[in-house]
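CORE FACILITY INTAKE
Project code: CF-77B
Contact: R.S. (postdoc)
Sample description: multi-component assembly, two entities in total
Requested service: structural model of the whole complex
Turnaround: standard
Below are the sequence entries exactly as provided by the requester. Do not edit them.
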Amino acid sequence: MSQNITQNKTICYHCGEDCQSEPLWHNDHAFCCFGCQTVFELLSENDLCEYYSFEKNPGNQLSHFIKDKYLFLDNEEVVDHLLDFKSDQLAKITFSIPSIHCSSCIWLLENISRFDHGIIVSKINFSKKKLTIDYNPSKTNLRSIADLLYQLSYEPEISLDAKNSTSTQKNTTRDLKIGIAGFCFGNIMLLAFPDYLGIEIDSEFIQYFTYISLGLSIPVLFYCSSEFFISALGGLRKRLLNIDLPIAIGIMALYGRSLYEIISATGSGYLDSMSALVFFLLIGRWVQGKTYEGLTFDRSFKSYFPLAIQKVDGENKTSTLVSLLEVNDLIEVRNEEIVPCDAILMSKEALVDYSFVSGESIPNTMHEGSKIYAGGKIKGSAVQMTVIKPVSQSYLTQLWNHSSFENTDPATPSLIDQISRYFTPIVLLIALVSGIYWSVVDSSKILFVVSSVLIVACPCALALATPFTLNATMNTLGLHKMYLKGTHVIEKLWQVRKIVFDKTGTITTGSNQKVEWIGRELNEEEKSSIRSLASQSVHPLSLQLAKHLKNYNRANDVTDYKEEKGKGISALVNGKGIKMGSPSFVGLSVDTSGGAVIAVSLDQEVIGHFLIRTSYRTGLSSMIEQLSQTFVMAVLSGDNEAERDRLSSLFPQGTQISFNQSPENKLRAIESFESEQKTMMIGDGLNDAGALKRSFVGLSVAENVASFTPASDIIVLGDQLTQLPKFLSLVNQSRKIIWGGFVLSFLYNIVGLSLAVAGYITPVIAAILMPISSISVVALSTLGVKFVSHRLKLKA
Amino acid sequence: MKILVILIVVSLVIALVFLILFIWSVKSDQYEDTDSPAMRILYDDKPKSSTASKNK
């Protein structure tokens, strides 16, 4: 059957993809598509072929090149909004480029000034996947820079939304605090060394040492540990006993006691313990605050819509900001562009792909006068339409402004704060009781014992168990391409009881659809003819079919080609008349509920049809089986009921499976689930955006990291989704590890407290007990996660 | 034992120098991106002028 399959795969020199049957050859290098070849030519013209020497096949494949994609950058208003800085001679812009992935990318993008001499400097931030460009606006303009990047297949992601990122400021302060606390901790400990070893030196020196320590501890108290005091006060104001309260009390007790001892020259104080405590706690906070900076979890619809659109005004076409569109404006939307607002179609016909908005897998053909909702993607030739609702009031935007989105997070108190609610009163009680006891026995020791209790009970180790365990878990999941928005998501995952799936793009794969031929057997020549005809059209179904038959020769003589929009195509291929398209177009009556049908007739005779069915992800059924043991499941699909039978056989009996769900329906459904039990929504498109946001945990599935994902808590790569049971099991185990850490730190506290109550805590014991307890809890957390992931056969 | 005073002063001064260097490095955003400098160092410096003249 398949003689034309090439024996050894040819790999594209530029992007590393399989070149399929017909590689393009240029300068002895194979290319999979014209796009890759163009990039290579562009690079070799500019003497930049070193690009290929750092990594093998470093390029990105550009799926479909859209001419004039950045036309809107001609609009001065847009440009001014995007620029970081502007003067006559210098402008600065920061692009977010998700496809940056290797060292070759850095090299090329930092050398782009060789293409365009108006560019002064370009600099990459690899971890944030951002490119900063300084250019001379009198020599070049933003649009040509964006076009250049796009041509090189580094497509910049431009949206007005993405501009506001202010998280950098906070990070540097934390780095500084950690550095200063570490410095003070180390030096104070050094000065305390004679004390630890019991070396007798002149008391005069000891006096100096303690004064220097006191000096060193000032920045620790007033700068490094300020956030604990602020947070503790904030908690008190809200009548909450958070974990920072006992920490703040502990720090104050340590400092007060040390100050008293040093000034009265009765001892050397506990300043080393105090700075160690602050140092470790800050590291814990830092670890907990780490996120995936290259990913965006909070995209709203604005970043999905185009910034500007072509407005037609008689003969003139001007690019206008989408937000400035008014009712009755005539706009033109081109191939692959997204309709920014609800509109009425003025052109005769349009092919609209709603897959991202509604979950329908097959594009619709719309006729003149029909209403097109915002979010649809136009396929094929450009069309004109009249705006009927401004962007802010269109269908999808309405969903986003839904009342249920306000105060979505009812701020579930974290585990550590729940424990702290009991911990703080207990510690205070112990301090009180031991104070009363010693006031009877030996009143001179009251202050000493009470402060000792407060010092030892400071929940340093307790506060470290959670961040380190959660961070280790998050890192392990990240290695498996499941990216969490932050460590708090793990705590939320513990409570999830119900999992809701979307269908299209989530449990089905977008790209690999199963094509089946039903009818009389086709010979080689016929298949080749069908492929040639299918390659003529840009209709997604034709593309699917052409891809399916890619191993057959397409070098046929196609004449008299006709395409009837929404119906089908016909032509003479090698002299034979072929008609392909909808059953009614060809004259075949067949049940179309099993999937999309392309009927085929040859010389007026109907010979059969192709059935294109969506295919489910491999390993889906075992994933569902494993998940059904712990979770209740449901399916919300925006598509029609064609797949009902297949779906219900996959899921356990009694699973609620709903079809034809609009984004609004999905949101409502999640709301009603949510009122019964905590729900995790798994979806991929804008049509799930409402549900993803409303659900307790929203997980969005992406085909690659660079692709668009709606706002969610978790992003998972599509091919990793079926590992979900393992991931969730690791998440659940992490809770046990944290409890283990708590038990350990409670043991330390019990030992320390009994020593303190009995009045035996000396600076040396405190100096030993504090770091050891912290370090052992950190070790337990990280090693515990490693052990569990090893047992689950996950790499860690 | 007087030497001890000098030693301690010297050690503190050295440590302070490092602390100041650290603060400077944080302030000048050297911890902003820890990945790309490691790769950037591997690139050869090509004389820019020669390539530019080839183009034009």
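Facility notes:
- The interface with chain B takes residues 45-47, 50, 54, 103, 106-107, 110, 114, 117, 124-128, 168, 171-172, 175-176, 179-180, 183, 186-187, 190-191, 201-202, 205, 208-209, 212 of chain A (CB under 8 Å).
- The longest strand of chain A covers residues 508-519.
Invoice: internal transfer
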